[in-house]
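Readers outside the structure-tokenisation community will struggle with the description of the input data as it stands. For illustration, here is how one protein appears when written out as sequence plus structure tokens:
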Amino acid sequence: MNIKRKPKIGMLFLGAERFCPLGEGTKDGTYLERKVIECERYKAAVAPFLDLVASGVVCTRDEAELWAKKFYSEEVDCVVAIFLSWAEDAPWISFLRELYPIPLMLASVVRDSLSITDTNDENQFVDFLSAGALVGFLEASGSVKRFGRPMMRTEIGTLGDLVPKILAFAKAAKARAMLKKSKVSLLSCYNRAMWSTYVDPYNVFQKIGPELEFLSVAELCCEIEKIPDGYVQGVVDGFRKKYRVADNVDGEKFFASVRATLAMEKLALDSGTDLLVLNDIDKVLFEFVGLRPGFTPTSPETELISVPEGDIGGGLSVYILSLISGRISNFIEPFYIDKQRNAFVAGHAGPNNYTEKPENMIIARDERFAKSKWKYAGAPFAWYVFPEGEKTMLHVSEENGRLKLVASLVECLPTEHYLASYSHADFKHKTLDVCEFFGRIAECGVNQHFGIVSGDVTEELRAFAEIMDFDLYMIE
């Protein structure tokens, strides 16, 4: 699953057939010539960011139906339809009827300025007709309501206003499309200590899209036995060269942790898994494996996303942020509030992607289980400090059969390694008092797990929640 791919978008441009020949011989050319130039300008504004499948000026019912079929065959993530002026109803209504269920935006581009002063001049009269995108937009909006299409949005503004909205919509649609083709695997069960993290597997399949598979510890043990010693040692040696290793790390346990991680990745990838949800405090895992596999992803090229504690909703928060942004996301649990600094400390032990900033990673002993009875007690894993900067923070869980998103923007502060073996950082909300911030989150009804990703993708999350029909709570 290539999370870094560009969103694939279809664009449909609707014009008026009866206007096409008007303006022949005028300074600015015919209506059709003007609209062709306009279409190219709109395409050029979004093409650098998107994989574009775009029509020319569509004026007839047959053309509109052909483009509905073309967008299906090209498997676009979404479609943006733009009326270039008034246009007859038949093409648009036929397009709405023929287009398969997919995120669809009806957009109207407003000119930055106008120079119409006297339509007795034929050139200006054609410009007057050409400038009437509002007419087509309003007329089309009635058919949108009558069809009652899901995943439908309308937008109006200048091209400068619309481009960010189109990009956000396209990224959200890409996330939807990729979720539908994804596989989530749970290894090996829900976390019995945290019932609040449970979600209905059928609900996940029906409303989000991923196939959900349950992998077993027995399968993992079989894979561990198959990993050659020489291969494991090569990965261990590579880690020692690339990362700092704490003095108290036991070499045998380091080797065992790497071997178990490689086996876990192979088991997941061989089953077609995109998101692996590991219950890493499962007693069966400790009894038969003897440790928590601690180094996924073992390579920056590994696209598998892994999260701890058997929380499918928490895993989806990380996965959704990765799909929308195309960037590495992390799994956190807010630990405690630092009232004096108006900040909070958050992080998590266990699997967490440390490849965004390798210099922030130390291979450290698992202090939480260092004195336990398990065979490889204290086996090391990646101890990471999240890179500083603006982050989007997202929670996903289920309430009364509906999926719920709770999101906010926070600042990840410069942080030193200080919470032993817990990947972590200090955070603060940009404007809210930290107690008010978590009070408002708690009012939404959540559990303790969130995903974070660098940058602001809140507009994309708004579009995503709208497309998916999820409840969204934005803490601003």
